[in-house]
Amino acid sequence: MTSERTETSLPSRVVPRRIGLGALLAVIASFVGLDLGIDLVRGTDLAHVSFHLIGLAITVPAAVWVWRSGARELEELRRDLTKSREEAVRWRAEARDAVEGLSIAIDRQFDRWELTPAEREVCLLLLKGLSLREIADIRDTGERTAREQARAIYRKSALAGRAELAAFFLEDLLAPRDG
Length: 179
Known about the structure:
This protein is mainly α. It has 2 domains: about 15-95; about 115-170, Orthogonal Bundle (Arc Repressor Mutant, subunit A), CATH 1.10.10.10. The protein contains 6 helices and no strands. Helix 1 runs antiparallel to helix 2 (about 45-115) and helix 3 crosses helix 5. The longest helix is centred in the middle third of the chain and has 68 residues, at about 45-115.
């Protein structure tokens, strides 16, 4: 049920806009260079050629700088993503026994509430924070079905909604710190 992504499959919206801007500047520089070449062949005056050279002198370094800074930013995002994944793996390993114990306790509570297998699955997905639309998609059901199953869970558990459901299982995990 988890959606793991490889490091090379970062969502396209994460790719820095600077790389696109760098590419745009490179295209502009290419057109300026092409126009300069055509003008030189035609024997255009020195002032016009100078204008093109100034344009190239500005756009080429700017394109390179923007492209490189975007590439550095993307690499930094990849490093951060790798670090976050490593931390998540480490946390899961450290918390494995506690999570197993919590899972057993949650299953026992589901038994006391007499939840159906479908309601158990929906309840776990609600606890994970998924929306009813996401739950319906994962379970290949309609959103209305997921909503009705959630209502059945709240009715059987005598809880008012998602916040109370989460608090029921998680409230004691956040014990006050001695200070």
